[in-house]
Fold:
Amino acid sequence: MPTFTVVAIGASLVVLAVVFTAAAFVRSKVALLRSLFLPTSVIGGALALLFGPQVMGQLTDGRSFVSAEVAAIWSTFPSLLINVVFATLMLGKTLPSIRGLWDASKGHVFLGYGLSFGQYALGALLAIVILVPVFGLAPESAALLEVAFTGGHGTAAGLSGTFEDVGAPYLTDLALALATIGLVGGVVVGSLLVRWAVRSPRVSIAREEPLTSADDHDPGRLAQYDRPAQTVDPTGDPAVAAAEARGIAPLTTTAVAIGLAILVGWALLEGLRAFERLLTGDDAIMSLMPLFPMTIIGGMLVQFAAVRAGIATMIDRRRINEVAGLSLDVLILTAIGTMSLAAIGANLGPLAIMSATAIGWSVFGVLVLAPRLFRSRWFENSLGDYGQSQGTIATGFMLIDMADPAHATGATESFGYKQLLFEPFVGGGLITAMAVPFIHAFGDVAMLVVSGVATVAVLAIGFRVTRP
Structure:
């Protein structure tokens, strides 16, 4: 990794702040960007590309607002910040009972895993048939559909080191481009699906109907599952009170908890690598495993230890969310702002094919699979999984809100609790992280067989388990 001076790092942060400000201004003035629900970080990434060395620098003989040195510093941010984002997923949360969690979210779990495993299977099929033999991409391109569309920008950027280790660093740029397409496509196509449902006499949609007793859902019954670990004191902030009693600022406690989660995740990963070396004599597979999925487990263990030690009130979920939000915004802006336009321009054909396949598979999931996996209100429920399969959980919540603005069907709550059974494994979790090393070790044909069987098995079990 190159070394940078303190002044250069400071300058890169100043430029980052200016780009965020400019992106927020552009978003406030351009109605189209707001209607597509594009976050400021994505717009900022596009501005950074435009005023960076790859565009402005080429037109001005090397002079650009985002200099080459700043871009080089930014390029190191995503692989570091992704660990922070994933370490925060379970911190400050009270985990629900397994039975309550399963009853609330099983339809979403089966549809989500079916879409993710299907993306692997379709990606492997594309790699075997066209991506590798026709376009000359690496076999690891078989993982791009799931990495980019379900994983999103954060996962795509977080796997940059793994793509470099397997000798295909350009796959990071393709994954980021696909994630951007998924973000826009998720909103546009999802909105079209909602409009179709409103007009279709065959689909019952909550926003067009009065509330009935069958739809009368008590969100309080499920809201307990996502409460912060502390009990809110009406006289003040419990996290502040607990922190003051122990002489430490709440934000400091948050940073300590996240740091410990990352440390525990690192120790677990090193342990797995040592175990592989003990069994096989090397760590050829685990050496390609990135750190960030293990930080999810680290966060769960830190939270569990805090509860057992009686200090869980010091971990404030609101501040955890703020740190995670800041980290994700910076990650997305710097990842998009430093991706290679040359690599994307040289692979427009594969990008178009993979995008059409991923979007088509997700639409198939909504229209064909969802009615067989949800006992009631299949359309509203499936929109959350559609949005997530296109890159962001936020898109899923937004689409559910479009179809069910009164939150009468319970789709919002059940989709939220699905994440506890979903995120640690796919969409950026352990399975996502292991996919590229698996393909590198065993090939895309093995990936097709394994993911194809997994897709069929998950959906078959889901059809049976969720049957009324």
About this structure: The longest helix spans residues 98-131. The CA atoms of residues 242 and 314 lie 6 Å apart.
